[in-house]
Amino acid sequence: MKIYVVSGLGADFKVLEKLKFPEQHKIVFIDWLIPELDENFTDYVNRMAEKIDASEPFYLLGYSFGGIMVQELNKLKPAEKVVIMGSIKSDKEKSRLIKMGEVTKIPKYLPLSFFNDQTSVFYTRLRKFFDPKNPKIIEYFQVRDPYYLKWSVERISEWKFEENPNVIQILGDRDIVFPIKNSKPNYIIKGGTHLFPATKYKEVSTLLNEIFV
């Protein structure tokens, strides 16, 4: 069976490259698309869904913003299982910072120039402060198109979703992007920051092999 995988905001497969998936399944990474000008989230999800072959059973796996995306994809093309890592199952699990962005609409009014390469480098250096043992943070942050980044931050802050109890959630207990206190995950990665798929890959790989039987 195919496992369709969507990585995090601005990230490609590198953040997940150390994970060992069940050998009996085929891994298909769905790359982020650059949003069209003023494209709404529904239309964007529809374009992402075009990459999924729903003529046969499949699984969905999403990391961070990719976790939000696979839940939206699941509404269009239902999967046998949906697993999210370092992500949330509903808007009720948003952090205070993200909720503040939703209320104040700050992401909408940030200029495109804010999402330039210098900001990306600053962001990765800041993340390295919280993940000092991970020297490859800058390599994970590959999709740097300013419009895509601004558009994505807006969509995350606006996202509304009713929790699907069948979604399997894996969270790190030191995640500051999506704090564990706001969720009731199925699995907890001890000592895991938001980058736990890269830093705790052995433990995560074991879980995925148990889930995707």
UniProtKB/TrEMBL annotation:
Protein name (Swiss-Prot/TrEMBL): Alpha/beta hydrolase
Organism lineage: Bacteria, Pseudomonadati, Bacteroidota, Flavobacteriia, Flavobacteriales
Entry keyword Hydrolase: yes
Any one GO molecular-function label of the UniProt entry: hydrolase activity
Keywords: Hydrolase
InterPro entries for this protein: AB_hydrolase_fold
Domain of life: Bacteria
